[in-house]
Amino acid sequence: MSSVHVAHLALAADAQDLLFREARTANTFTAEPVSDEQIREIYELVKFGPTSMNQQPLRILLVRSEQARERLVEHMIDNNKTKTAKAPLTAILAADLNFHDQLPKVFPHAPDAKDYFADPDSRTESARFNALIQVGYFILGIRAAGLAAGPMNGFDAAGVDKEFFPDGTHSSLVVVNIGKPGPDAWFPRSPRLDYDEVVTIA
Predict the structure, then answer these.
(1) Which residues neighbour 69 within 8 Å (Cβ) at sequence distance 6 or greater?
(2) Fewer Cβ atoms within 10 Å of its own Cβ: the N or the C terminal residue of the chain?
(3) What is the pLDDT of residues 26-69, one digit of tens each?
């Protein structure tokens, strides 16, 4: 349990520790499986995180079959190949470049919202930006489930897109290994910037 003063935070100290202070990026995992039900519960929690115009462009591909895992490992950089091959579950987090097709459902009070994203370049920028916000939510959701996440951007994104999203409508952002942390799972924690190094007042 952290001894940091938390009087001004509504979240209980043990939950703060679970999500932030004690949570680490895992590099090894046990063989304990991660179920579809666990991922569903994670998603049902983190889907409430805000995005611009409620776009929700994040798409999650769970890599479960050995064949799919082998295909993914081929596109990971060397240091990430073994981690990805051995993790109990790996997810490819991608941005749906046609997220605007869902705006009539998720942003119904603006019937013409889809038209705001007619330009493919600005739509892609918005999709990737907002999906990356959701990536952060997803990692916190994994921690909230008592699991560890190993997010990686060390992979050939173009290769992954061609392999898993050949229709060109998705843009891969992050590959995340998920599970219970295994032996020697952590690197030493790197320093964090202090408040006064980050926050200024205008």
Answers:
(1) 63, 84, 85, 90
(2) C
(3) 999 999 999 999 999 999 999 999 999 999 999 999 999 999 99
Beta-carbon contacts of residue 139 (< 8 Å; ≥ 6 apart): 149, 151, 176
Return the HEC string of the chain.
Answer: CCCCCCCCCCCCHHHHHHHHHCCCCCCCECCCCCCHHHHHHHHHHHCCCCCHHHCCCEEEEEECCHHHHHHHHCCECHHHHHHHHHCCEEEEEEEECCHHHHHHHHCCCCCCHHHHHCCHHHHHHHHHHHHHHHHHHHHHHHHHCCCEEEEECCECHHHHHHHHCCCCCEEEEEEEEEECECCCCCCCCCCCCCHHHHCCCC
Tokens 């520790």 appear where?
17
> What integer pLDDT is reported at residue 191 of this predicted model?
96
Helical pair 66-73 and 78-86, crossing angle rounded to 10 deg = 170
Q: Angle formed by the axes of helices 157-164 and 66-73, to 10°?
A: 150
Q: Please give the share of the chain, as a percent, with pLDDT higher than 90.
A: 96
| pTM exceeding the 0.85 threshold for the entire prediction | yes
Closest CA relative to residue 93, chosen from 154, 138, 42, 53: 138
